[in-house]
């Protein structure tokens, strides 16, 4: 009640002063203006001045970010050698297991590769026997060295071709067991390299898939992590292992994490990427989900003022700097950044370098001055 009465008295007195002086302030420019009060007005409003106090306070850093998946836990699925899509076994968002067939394809080129492999594999047995025969003849001095060298080079060339074809066919996902048994596979399965969720599905039955085409992506949600975007000015407070609370924007869930890695590159917008590991693996979080992060940096010494000394003026947090001018005192709004609040004390930083913590500012009565600003803006 005392606060309300003091504000009312001040507003009446200032309203009269304003009507006499004819002062008008544009609402948009109110944060750049000043208010001048005489000693009687200051006393009636209960305005008190003081300097910021250095206190030990738990510093919290507020930031934004989104859920990401490490590069090693997501993979793009493509047709290694190209081919026509024969069938699709999965849907977008489906959970798949390692080794599960994702889709099948067919292509004459793959059939030719299998034919070449079977032919080389069959011929290799004959070439190996011929090499053994030539080796035996040379040892008995009954054969020519030239024939032995030719047999050896022919066998090594065939073996190299077999190994090359074997590697290609393995990349294509073909069964070498069936091939070694002489069975040619016309439909080639493409399998999941690890367990995860199918996303970005971009294929249809009957279409031709080029090797460069990204047909789908598989992500392992168990290894989701948080990428927090922190301003450069807050870097000095960050350490590995600090606790982080993540509030997802699409629900009320709070997830806990810890700072794992602090980026070294400062972006053009003067921010740094901070990598945080979740305390518990959570396979229900969708990659790309946005969140608000609160980083607990621990207790630090910061310059503080009573929380009521900081008010919001024109959507900006400000404190009022008193400047004595003859019989009156002008109150200049100085924009500040709030670092954290604890036990009715607020740690802050000045936005403008011209202000410092050794200056006097209003520690009691800031709301009275704010009300005067708003009244003056309405004139």
Give the topology, please.
Layout: H1 2-21, E1 35-38, H2 39-45, E2 48-50, E3 53-68, E4 74-77, E5 83-88, E6 95-96, E7 101-106, H3 108-139, H4 145-172, H5 176-180, E8 188-191, E9 196-199, E10 208-209, E11 216-219, E12 225-231, E13 243-248, E14 254-262, E15 271-278, E16 290-306, E17 311-313, E18 316-325, E19 328-342, E20 345-350, E21 361-364, H6 366-378
Antiparallel strand pairs: 1-19, 2-21, 3-12, 3-16, 4-11, 5-7, 5-10, 6-9, 7-8, 9-11, 12-15, 13-14, 13-16, 14-15, 16-20, 17-18, 18-19, 19-20
Can you tell me about this structure?
With 379 residues, the protein is α+β, with helices and mostly antiparallel strands. The chain has three domains: 2-58 and 300-378, conserved putative lor/sdh protein from methanococcus maripaludis s2 fold, CATH 2.40.420; 61-72 and 220-298, Elongation Factor Tu (Ef-tu), domain 3 (Beta Barrel), CATH 2.40.30; 74-219, Beta Barrel (OB fold (Dihydrolipoamide Acetyltransferase, E2P)). The chain is 28% helix and 37% strand. It contains six helices and 21 strands. The chain has helices at 2-21, 39-45, 108-139, 145-172, 176-180, 366-378, and strands at 35-38, 48-50, 53-68, 74-77, 83-88, 95-96, 101-106, 188-191, 196-199, 208-209, 216-219, 225-231, 243-248, 254-262, 271-278, 290-306, 311-313, 316-325, 328-342, 345-350, 361-364. The strands form four sheets. The protein has a six-stranded antiparallel barrel. It has a four-stranded antiparallel β-sheet with strand order 4-11-9-6, with no helix packed on it. β19 (328-342) and β20 (345-350) form a beta hairpin. α1 (2-21) packs antiparallel against α2. The longest helix is centred in the N-terminal third of the chain and has 32 residues, at 108-139. The chain is elongated. The protein starts with a helix and ends with a helix. Residues 1-31 have low confidence and may be disordered.
